[in-house]
Write a sequence for this structure.
């Protein structure tokens, strides 16, 4: 690690299923608190909703359509003054498939 001290670490967690997202946030929170650092969050962000309208039959029955939607749930976790042990604990975590974790460093 460089000589600059990290002031804040922001973790953004995204998933299609909210129960997978909540379990991932719990794992992150448990790993960070075990290193003795305070955690702010998880802070829920608005759910991104994408809707698709699909024709059921391409040539006839123009009014017959199916509607599908994809919900993307998102949470933010902030860690102030992270330690080396915090990074080691975060590296050891294993998340279920479908959970996207993004880490942003602030100096």
């Amino acid at each position: 690690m460089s000589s600059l001290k990290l002031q804040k670490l922001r973790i953004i967690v995204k998933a299609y299923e909210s129960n997978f997202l909540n379990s991932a946030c719990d794992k992150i929170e448990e790993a960070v608190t075990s290193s003795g650092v305070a955690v702010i969050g998880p802070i829920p962000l608005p759910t991104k909703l994408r809707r698709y309208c699909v024709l059921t039959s391409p040539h006839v029955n123009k009014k017959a359509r199916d509607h599908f939607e994809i919900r993307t749930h998102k949470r933010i976790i902030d860690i102030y003054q992270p330690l080396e042990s915090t990074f080691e604990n975060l590296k050891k975590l294993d998340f279920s498939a479908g959970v996207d974790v993004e880490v942003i460093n602030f100096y």
Q: What stands out?
A: The mean pLDDT is 87. The CA atoms of residues 1 and 84 lie 9 Å apart. Residues 18-34 form the longest helix (17 residues).
